[in-house]
Amino acid sequence: MSLPIAELVPSHIRSFEAYVPSRPDPELMRVYKVDHLHRLNNNENALGPPPAAQRVIDGFEPPRSAIYPSGDCFFLRQALGERFGMDPERFLVGNGSCEVIASVIKAFCEKGDNIITADKTFAVYEWVAEFSGFEARLIPLLDYAFDPEAMLAAMDGRTKILFVCNPNNPTGTWWNRQTMERFLARVDGRAIVVLDEAYREYVDDPDFPDGMELMERHRNVVVFRTFSKMYALAGLRVGYVCGQKDVIDYIRRTHIVYSVNGLGQLAARAALGDDAEHILATRSMVARAREIILPAFRELELPYVSGAGNFVMVKTPASDSLIYRQLMRRGIMVRTMTGFRFPNWIRVSLVQEPAMRDFLAGFREVVTQVREDAEGEEA
Amino acid sequence: MHSENRLILELPPDVAFLPAATATAENAAEVFGLDRSGALKLSLAVEEFFAYLCRFAGREEPLRLTLSQGGTFVRVAFRFRAGEVSLRALNFAASVDLDEESGSLGDELGLLLASRTTDRCSLESSGSGVYVLQAEVDRNYPEAEPLRTPQTLCPPIRVPRTEDEPLHAGLLQHAALLAAGHYPVRSCPNSFFRPARFADMVAAGQYQALLAQDGADKPAGLLCWRNSGPRAVVFSGPYIFDDSADQALGQEAARLLVERFLSMVARTEALCAFSERPTPDVPKGWFERLGSLTLRNEAGAESAGKPQAALFRHLREDVGGAVWAHADLEPFLTRQYDRLAFSRDILRVEPTRTSRLPQHSLLATSLDRRRGLAILRPLLDGQDFAANLAAHVQALREEDVDNAPDILLHLDLSEPWQAALFPTLTACGFQPRLILPHAGASDLLVCQHVPADS
Ligand SMILES: Cc1ncc(COP(=O)(O)O)c(C=O)c1O
To answer: How confident is the model at residue A14, as a pLDDT?
Structure first.
């Protein structure tokens, strides 16, 4: 009798829950019997990529698909170096910043080590640590924000990386310059500090600390950025990490070469060169969406959390997954927050006005219905 | 990987090795903490299973015997390959019918005996003719008196993180007895009445538990859960120990327990959480009502005959799914799925042709005498399914003539052959009550037996 496969698998993999991605849109539309779908679930930028990137994508000749891309994103790193005034060797590009998260953990952690992050934040830091067999110490948020004191208190001799999502997905909170400086001073170079700035381009407050500048004074800081959010290239999967040259050099040793596709490299480089107006237009779309949606939440007397980034969270008067199913039946896809450890909240991406209005109309209906049902049950 | 609480032995299917099998079982029973009578039950089960399998299992492969310690019980499992086994004797209602011209009666009797002396017994098929026959013998725990003394709480209420430090066994036992004293029997897991067993189950990971404590560290509330299939968790509670007039702190404890519970299961394999015995203290707005069961049997409690709601929530976004259904069941399913806004493809099954079936069917029965509740699950289809089911209903009603248990039947709608049984169930007096999403390989349909005289 052959051995059950499970017995070949290390226990940290056996107990690990594989991430189940959403089904593709056509499948969801079939299942929920709708003919359109507003994607308000992934914080994508509904404006699409900047015009220069769109042109590059349009002009990409199919035969070029036969050619291997640059294995280390040579031109894209040059463009990044120019933009931030740094040596291109200080950038490492990945298949989305998710890939870079894995590379950083692989580079610095060995058996018995731990990483520290928040309990209610982007899940990938925790997931990668756990399926790699490292402990993830999850520090509860304090007033919806990362808690620097508690993170410091959780550090020990085996802490290798602290992940700070700034601004935080899904709460939109961020550490200002002073909080960040104090935190870094107290970490005092004992561990790598990752600043995940995936939503950085949505913040225009001068008090927002710039990771690129911090790493010059704190050599243990590395910064993650992505082309998936503001730059609207999520489908092409390009993200990167920037840090001191020696730090990046270690991370590169664990990183897969050729993981970033050719079209993605071209489009990201073009996007970077044509982002000024795009960023302004996106920010104004997001601001307008917020203007529409927040008063409606107040009117419905539902608590919400709205900070930086192109998303808001709202508390639902029933199970978030019920609200999800009811909204899906109306062609509106949001993110349920139970998986972020915010049961009975949903997160809604901020996009153009017509989609926001559709969302609100559907959401009002569903909330009203749920409230009526609850009263019915009590009677 | 080696494990301290598991022992595996491969045996040729030959009765000459019977002493090896039973000696191993006795040895394991002792090391894994059964007392003398438990050890006897276990070795009897091993003896009967082995003797039976020597006759019926395929000969091309060895029998694999696994003995394992499950915290509060010891489990014996035989993995074997069989063409068409008749495991009829494992039916709860298998009777010794002397008129039957079955040559194998003697063997089946032994198996029946084994299945009755153990605490639980099940047969699972892992496809392609491989079966696992297993039985569990519980360790012995003393029963304790539920605590009915009224409690008032003082602020602040907190729910200590169990990730950092496991709950203290003494506190858990105290809370279990408070729950047993404050709630009807039906709302409590059996182990609350043997609190040391409950604490051991938590320590062994069979149950997970969260405890709320008040400002003076008194137990303020308890919520516990376990896995049900790979995709669901079933919770019991919250049990709240607040006898004050306004119950404000009790409500706070209930909310904190539910919130913490959900955030603990949110990033696990589970797709959903449900409860077939929620307490009235489940806070509003967190769960959906799946439907209700009309349970008559609430020994000694005022709620007898009141419908018992089943609660549910997804832990992820529902991506839809498919279930099998007999035409007679479709209207019920369509109504339920629509009411709950579940998207499901309902696939029509044709009735299974009986001539293709093995002679004997098999039903698993779990009977909880204290709660007066029996749950049946079809394990193997067979030509005698209708008669077998009727015999089970009959046997269960005769278990306690004055206070016959409520009888539920779980159908796994991911199995076309189970879905095809539906008309047979209705003919036997079962009615569809509710759907438990993802509770089996896909959704489970819960049917309830409605006696002709009620
Ligand atoms: C905080 C945060 N970091 C990283 C990512 C991953 O982005 P990428 O598409 O670059 O892998 C996301 C996307 O949701 C995010 O929210």
So the answer is: 57
Residue type, A71: G
DSSP three-state, residue B10: strand
Let me know whether A63 and A137 are in one domain. Answer: yes
Do residue A56 and residue A26 come from a single domain? no
Packing angle, helices A51-58 and A262-273, rounded to 10: 150
Q: Are strands B344-348 and B444-449 parallel, antiparallel or unpaired?
A: unpaired
Mutate to test the interface with A, among B256, B259, B267, B312 (most CBs of A within 10 A): B267
- The residue to which tokens 């006759």 are assigned: B55
- Domains in chain A, number: 2
Among all chains, which residue has been given the structure tokens 């899906």?
Answer: A328
Evaluate: CB of A196 within 6 angstroms of ligand 1.
yes
Separation CA A175–CA B436 (nearest Å): 44
| pLDDT-derived band at A157, boundaries 50, 70, 90 | very high
Domains recognised in chain B with CATH numbers: 1-139 (3.30.565.10), 169-286 (3.40.630.30), 318-454 (3.40.630)
Q: Spell out which residues of chain A touch residue B341, defining contact as CB-CB under 8 Å.
A: 322, 325-326, 329
Structure tokens belonging to residue B53: 């399998």
Q: What is the pTM of this model?
A: 0.84
Contacts of B338 in chain A (CB under 8 A): none
Q: Do the beta carbons of residue B214 and residue B249 sit within 8 Å?
A: yes
Q: How many CB atoms lie within 10 A of CB B452?
A: 5
ipTM > 0.90, yes or no? no
Calculate ∠ Cα A79-A81-A84, nearest 5°: 105
Same domain, A16 and A90: no
Looking from the CA of residue A97, the nearest atom of ligand 1 is 10
Q: Whose CA is nearest to atom 8 of ligand 1?
A: A96
Q: Do A336 and B314 touch (CB under 8 A)?
A: yes
**Tokens describing residue A349:** 């991406």
Region for A195 from its dihedrals, namely left if φ exceeds 0, alpha if ψ lies in -120 to 50, beta otherwise: beta
